[in-house]
Amino acid sequence: MINIFQRHWHASTRFSPPKPGKADADGAAAVMEPGQQPKGELIAETIYCDTDCEVGARLRLDPNSFEIMEATWETYSLPVTITDLPGLRGAVAYFNSGPALTKALADLGPVARTTFNETIGCVILSEPFLIKERGFASYAAYREYWDVIYLNACRYYSSLDTASELWDFSDYTRTSILFNRFASQSVFVLPGGGLRVIGTYSDTFHEISVEFDTESNLVITRAAGVLLRTPHAICPGTNVYLQQLTGYDAKNPVKKQLAKVLGQGDGCVHLIDTVYDALIAVNMTANRRGGL
Fold first, then answer.
1. CB-based contacts of 264, cutoff 8 Å, min separation 6
2. Which tens digit of pLDDT belongs to each residue from 186-213?
3. In the chain, N or C: fewer CB atoms in 10 Å?
4. pLDDT by residue (tens digit) across 229-238?
């Protein structure tokens, strides 16, 4: 079994240091009270590196409104470029930001769109650490807000009336790095010309691994996976839907169709994303080999 293609992602959200002049008059740094977040701007970025390229998306945001103040696209592979994206200024890095991304990134291709999507996802998942900045009176108020906007979106939010636990993130106070996400996909050639892909996902709240074997025509012959770390006890059982991928034609996967196979509202959003990214890696590998 030979490794022939890899993809790696690291995304994070952090506070930038306060600007000069914001310290005390004697130059000393301000003392942080328990639960208090530092002043400054929010920086969200995703670095993507695969066998063929290395690129990055960066957003500078208002931590209260999540309004984008600056957006930058960088290519680190030759030729190195830095592209300012004024079309994203004023957009809000939150749900329903897709139209703004589509318009602003039209000339940059699908990798840029995916990378900025990842970046905005990190902004959303850093929100539990910005309760006061985002205008919520308490953690309970924030939890109730998510119970409404995410209702029936995944197994936990489809089972609020029977769930035996609440997601308690009140002890997660952070003052610099708010959220991290790592993901990777590695593709191998199997004897006979088929492919094996191993996809992993790890963020501040979740850790997931999936593995698929395909024929040379990308029909899945074996599917397995596990949710190693989740915020709720009912989440790990969503891996049962992976069994339904045996026999699935993985050519040019459509995420909405894949979500239906993987349980949709009874499944796990992050598992669906991990599977989708793994199958995209398989397709990219097949294209590089001239197999599609």
1. none
2. 999 999 999 999 999 999 999 999 999 9
3. N
4. 998 899 999 9
∠ CA 110-48-289 to the nearest 5 degrees? 65
Q: At 55, which amino acid appears?
A: V
Looking at the 3D structure of the chain, how many domains does it have? 1
For 107, the token pair is: 């000339």
| CA 217 to chain CA centroid, nearest Å | 29
**Structural domain for 188, as ranges:** 179-288
Tell me how many degrees the CA angle 101-141-148 measures, rounded to the nearest 5: 55
CB 119 within 8 Å of CB 91? no
Instruction: Round to whole Å and give the CA distance between 218 and 196.
Output: 10
Residue 246 domain-assigned (yes or no): yes
d(CA 221, CA 213): 6
CB contact at 8 A, 212 and 222 = yes
Model-wide pTM > 0.85: yes
**Rounded to an integer, what distance in angstroms lies between the CA atom of residue 88 and that of residue 265?**
31
